[in-house]
Amino acid sequence: MKKSTTKMQMQQIESMSLAFGLKHIPKQLPELISVAEAEGQSYREFLINIFETEVTGRNERRRHRNLTLAHFPPAAPRIDEFDPDELDSGITRGQLKQLKDLSWLDACGNIILAGPPGLGKTMIAIGLGRHAIDEGYTVCFEKIDSFFEILKEADFERKAGFRLKNIKKAQLVILDEIGYSTITRDQANRFFCFISDAYERQSVIFTTNKEIPQWAEMIGDPVLTTAMMDRILHHARCFSLEGESYRLKHPELFVGGEQNDEV
Questions:
Q1: For the chain, does the N or the C end have fewer beta carbons within 10 angstroms?
Q2: Ranges of CATH 3.40.50.300 domains, the chain
Q3: Percent of the chain beyond pLDDT 90?
Q4: Which residues contact 8 (CB under 8 A, 6 or more apart)?
Q5: Is the pTM for the entire model greater than 0.90?
Q6: 3/29 Cα distance (integer angstroms)
């Protein structure tokens, strides 16, 4: 009789939890009750553990959803996997630590990571993006060629429109590999409109093989470039990476595997 009553009570608690939208508590309820009984927890301690379980579950679900929406490449690295000592210069451990506090993201600041291919610009950008997601922020990652296609097709193609909507809502946007292909006049105009909309509302991380003075030539319109760079650089931290390519230093990491243009 006692087991039957206990089972009914458990089912009632689970049902009421779901009625209030508490989806994570029922999954852990038997274990939470067992631990509470074994440790002699007070009512307050038990309630705290129950609600902490729900909050943790919701945060993890949100993190997983944000990680999916980010569209990172497979096996996206974490920021702690990047070793600045591999570079000759450009960014230090202290600077990486400062970037990890995400104060620049709270201030809608931008980051520019410039330098030749293979130095880890994309690795740093994605690592900061993953760290931001772990801290509860929303992030979108796109290589610049894909981004331009999204801007072009958003008005008439549903998938592109949906993606652009997510990009414009994200707190952090990562635009990768700027400068590896020419930018048309139409792309430049759409790019400027996006930067203008994002100004002081979103943060953007740019990875590029072009130094800032070379952007006017890349975009092909000095006036448009100046207006764009005024907005980008107003709240920006710029890093010019120098050194030997990771692929030259560690060829064993890329044998038989798929690799990105940037490590």
A1: N
A2: 77-253
A3: 53
A4: none
A5: no
A6: 16
- To the nearest 10°, report the CA torsion of 249, 250, 256, 257: -100
Q: What confidence tens digit (pLDDT) does each residue in 196-233 have?
A: 999 999 999 999 999 888 888 888 889 999 999 999 99
- Rounded to the nearest 10 degrees, how much is the dihedral formed by the CA atoms of 124, 126, 129, 135? -80
Residue 147 vs residues 14, 16, 151, 153: alpha-carbon distances, Å: 45, 45, 6, 10
Strand partners, 142: 175
Q: How buried is residue 189: exposed, middle or buried, by Cβ count under 10 Å (0-12/13-18/19+)?
A: middle
Of 116, 82, 85, 105, whose CA–CA distance to 240 is shortest?
Answer: 116
pLDDT tens string 231-261: 999 999 999 999 887 667 666 544 444 444 4
Is the distance from CB of 10 to CB of 2 less than 8 angstroms?
Answer: no
Query: Cα separations (Å) of 81 from 11, 124, 128, 187?
Result: 45, 9, 11, 34
First to last CA, the chain: 64
Measured between alpha carbons, how far is 166 from 64 in angstroms, rounded to an integer? 16
Return the bridge partners of 172, or none: 139, 203
Say how many residues make up the chain: 263
CATH of 77-253, one of 3.50.50.60, 3.40.30.10, 2.40.50.140, 3.40.50.300: 3.40.50.300
Q: What is the pLDDT of residues 21-39, one digit of tens each?
A: 777 778 888 888 888 888 8
In the sheet with 172-178, reading across from the earlier edge strand, the strands are 139-143, 172-178, 203-208, 110-114, 236-240
The separation between CA 33 and the C-alpha centre of its own chain, rounded to angstroms, equals 37
